[in-house]
Q: What sequence folds into this?
């Protein structure tokens, strides 16, 4: 992937968003401003240097973003005092900052980082530019206000908001070479002050290429309806193929509502992981008592723990702040919580009944739980894009295991529940081992030693 610098246009007034915020780039969208989302999304694609063209309320934008260090990037600014004119002037203002190819983005366009990932891998000539286009625009896009594009073969043939004969939509995501500046100057001299004017000039030279989107989302946030649609799109992305049935049906709808509230606070994803762990420990502490009343209290807290356990990842993804450490922290705390919860159930049952069998059953339940968690990561990493993962209609994940524990505690059937948990968890771990062995013997002749030792 080629490392590039990005130019972000953030000079406009955004009158249609004025009821939400006076400065369009700083309008909030799920805990981040619009322009923060653009910066952090581009950062996920490896872009660390940005030049932002500000105009209306430019000082507020500069004060909010500063030099970019808090985002782990470097930000430079160019002020466009002619922001009431077309965005071609904004791009030309940054001319001296770009001597090589660069990414061009709009401050009010939210998009999937995979779009930029693909774009950065696309080869481009020194006298060419590439625009990402959407050949299958979704219902949430305002087609009437969108910039239409007509493509022929591998190049753009025509572009404009009033274009009648078109076959795709401009997404506002580009890779440009400095040739764009000369094209914009020419279009301005001809009376067209918009970015589309420069694209038309390059299109006439057959130097304006396009890249069609795959199944990736993007949206231009111009008004309150657009922002609502953007929230829905981003939240839908939180659903994972690896979610178990309990997560899909019960936990995720509740945890997402909690996560949206947490976005309004300063709490970090790692702090949420710790909070979830504490709730789990609190539930386990009631299990140690063994009496039915305390089993009920423990079951309630364990279920709350199961729901909140999804919030750390949701908040991290909504704020585009996922880290490998955060994932490891959550995983380690979950394993400790699982161990203490099962230990509490076994001890509480033994203290009431004196039946030593519970310790053997508890041991196998704990081993199965740990193996289930360990093999799930390996299994998902290998088969997530393969047909084997698609054939698995039921996923024995942590959400299912915790629900079994909650049901067992509420019905006061600890021994039976732990037997079921031990059998199902160990069976799933062994099933994955067999499936993996078959896959290894079939179409995976070479593989990392980590998976076969």
A:
């Amino acid at each position: 992937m080629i490392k590039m610098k990005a130019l972000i246009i953030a000079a406009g007034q955004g009158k249609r968003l004025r009821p939400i915020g006076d400065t369009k780039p700083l309008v909030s969208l799920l805990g981040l401003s619009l322009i923060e989302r653009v910066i952090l999304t581009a950062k996920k694609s490896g872009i660390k240097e940005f030049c932002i063209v500000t105009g209306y309320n430019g000082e507020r934008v500069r004060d909010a973003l500063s030099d970019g260090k808090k985002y782990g990037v470097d930000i430079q600014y160019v002020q466009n005092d002619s922001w009431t004119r077309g965005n071609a002037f904004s791009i030309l203002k940054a001319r001296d900052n770009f001597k090589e190819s660069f990414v061009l983005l709009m401050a009010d366009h939210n998009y999937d980082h995979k779009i930029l990932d693909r774009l950065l891998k696309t080869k481009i000539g020194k006298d060419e530019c590439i625009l990402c286009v959407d050949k299958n625009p979704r219902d949430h896009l305002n087609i009437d206000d969108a910039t239409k594009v007509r493509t022929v073969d591998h190049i753009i043939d025509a572009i404009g908001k009033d274009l009648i004969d078109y076959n795709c939509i401009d997404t506002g995501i580009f890779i440009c070479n400095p040739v764009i500046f000369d094209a914009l100057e020419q279009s301005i001299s001809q009376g067209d002050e918009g970015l589309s004017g420069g694209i038309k000039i390059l299109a006439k030279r057959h130097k304006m290429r396009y890249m069609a989107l795959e199944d990736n989302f993007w949206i231009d946030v111009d008004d309150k309806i657009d922002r609502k649609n953007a929230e829905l799109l981003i939240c839908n992305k939180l659903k994972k193929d690896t979610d178990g049935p309990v997560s899909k049906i019960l936990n995720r709808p509740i945890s997402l509502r909690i996560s949206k509230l947490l976005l309004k606070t300063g709490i970090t994803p790692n702090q949420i992981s710790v909070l979830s762990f504490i709730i789990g420990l609190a539930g386990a502490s009631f299990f140690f008592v063994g009496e039915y009343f305390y089993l009920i209290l423990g079951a309630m807290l364990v279920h709350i723990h199961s729901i909140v356990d999804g919030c750390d990842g949701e908040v991290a993804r909504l704020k585009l702040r996922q880290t490998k450490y955060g994932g490891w922290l959550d995983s380690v705390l979950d394993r400790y919580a699982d161990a203490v919860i099962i230990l509490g159930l076994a001890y509480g049952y033994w203290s009431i009944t004196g039946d030593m069998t519970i310790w053997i059953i508890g041991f196998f339940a704990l081993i199965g739980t740990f193996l289930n968690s360990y093999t799930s990561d390996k299994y998902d990493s290998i088969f997530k894009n393969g047909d084997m993962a698609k054939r698995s209609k039921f996923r024995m994940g942590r959400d299912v295991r915790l629900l079994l524990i909650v049901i067992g505690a509420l019905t006061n059937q600890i021994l039976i529940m732990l037997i079921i948990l031990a059998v199902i968890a160990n069976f799933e771990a062994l099933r994955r081992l067999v499936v993996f062995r078959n896959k290894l013997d079939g179409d995976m002749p070479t593989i990392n030693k980590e998976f076969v030792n």
